[in-house]
């Protein structure tokens, strides 16, 4: 029989190489050998984490329950946070709610899927591909609804993403700090297409157009709001000014069914002189 010390060294050597399969094998042997030893809480935690890195959510969920059971509640132990993420993916809402409470969070009371308003943040979509940071409104500790109009062809305003718990950057707007979380997976898609349109009007006119779409539960934002950052800068602390809308003729991104977008644009144009719009079309064709 392999000694625990030898197993531990092999497991964490694999961990250091980011060989998650090897780490899982070694840690699985360790917790089977000493499930409740002095070092076992850390082994259970790391085993659940290794499954998370492998995106094996079923095992991250099952092992995560074992890990959380070995840590004190209410002290912001990461084992509860990781269990909350895994339980959310498995749609075990009772376990997810208990995990968030075990971490030390207070959520609105209820049962079933969590749909709260936990404020604004940012999420980095496709962090391992072509990343794009978008604004979101958090609906639970691990999920958020996209409220920007993404530029990526396969992403949509209104979709719900599941994100990691540790921020990888922040955006600072008027002194308020908003964390940037990395996306773990797309939770729920949105069927709202991304459109482009050319509008003419004053800065106040553009603000009114954005507000008109927002009141309808749709998206609108000037293309000039997009800011390109290198990966290093994006993952740091980025100061952003709250953009004052510019007047003149400019391109805008919309998230709406084409017919509804045309209705709202016509309504907007008719409210004041000097406004116009043209070239409404699918942005990604």
Note down, in words, how this protein is organized.
It is built from 9 helices and 11 strands. Strands 1-2-3-4-6 form a 5-stranded mixed beta barrel. A 4-stranded antiparallel β-sheet has the order 8-10-7-11, with helices on one face. The protein has helices at residues 4-16, 20-33, 40-53, 57-68, 78-89, 93-103, 203-215, 231-234, 258-270, and strands at 120-125, 132-140, 143-146, 160-163, 170-173, 176-188, 194-201, 219-222, 237-240, 248-255, 276-282. The protein has 3 domains: 4-103, Alpha Horseshoe (Serine Threonine Protein Phosphatase 5, Tetratricopeptide repeat), CATH 1.25.40; 120-188, no CATH class; 194-282, Alpha-Beta Plaits (2-Layer Sandwich). It is elongated, with a radius of gyration of 23 Å. Helix 1 (4-16) packs antiparallel against helix 2, helix 4 packs antiparallel against helix 5 and helix 5 runs antiparallel to helix 6 (93-103). The chain has 285 residues and is α+β, with helices and mostly antiparallel strands.
The first-to-last residue Cα distance is 61 Å
Q: Would you count the extended β strands for me? A: 11
Number of separate structural domains:
3
Q: Spans of 5+ residues with little confidence (pLDDT < 50)?
A: 228-234
Overall pLDDT level: 91
Structural class designation:
alpha+beta
Indicate the CATH topology of the largest domain.
Serine Threonine Protein Phosphatase 5, Tetratricopeptide repeat
Q: What's the quaternary structure here? A: single chain
Please give the order of strands in the largest beta sheet.
Answer: 1-2-3-4-6
| Helix segment tally | 9
Shape: elongated
Query: Which H/E pattern describes the elements?
Result: HHHHHHEEEEEEEHEHEEHE
**Rg result:** 23 Å
What portion of residues is helical?
A: 25-40%
